[in-house]
Amino acid sequence: MGQSYMGKILNVDLSSGVIGEEVIADSVYENYLSGTGLAAYLLYDRMPPGADPLGPDNILGFVSGLLTGTGSLFTGRWSVVAKSPLTGTWGDANCGGNFSPAIKRCGYDGIFFRGISPKPAYLCVKDGRAELLDASDLWGQDTNDAEEMLIKKHGGSARVAVIGPAGERLSLISGVCNDRGRIAARSGLGAVMGSKRLKALVLDGKGKIPVHDRETVLRLNEVCNR
Asked: Are 133 and 139 in contact (CB under 8 A)?
């Protein structure tokens, strides 16, 4: 066994507004790695059987890629996960851009939501503080306009994942957008986000992403490029 990783996730209960950090045991990482592996473990462990995909018991997660920020080639995508309203089983969609390192720079491997907000809301994580804020003025805006409004409000270094009117109206083919039009499109997870009245995530972390063995990462990159 090597040094303990002390990986953390952020849990958000939209119904009550309670937000809390959780340290994930090393054994979970050893068996399921991170990213969608971590998410699959948590959803299977914590979601009740028969949960309605558009109901309060569904868990919606945003997870960074396993090797995000390590300098490894072909990495850096993020995934959104939940019980799919299209299939009634596991759903995930992934996307590129800058949102995956934003999750890590906030100090988390994933951010997980349960419950339903009593009114439109968005999560803002900035300067080590996480809070749910009112999204009533954003509800009904398309993804590009909503992203611009949030970046203007919270600063140019903020990264945003957001749904548009399709997700708000629970369209089962709606996705989650970031970086002005990139979209995590599969599984209808924009509808899950809309069902929770969660308009967006705004992340602005300044933390460094630790790499256990950067020299080995660089060596393997060179091997891959030959």
From this structure: no
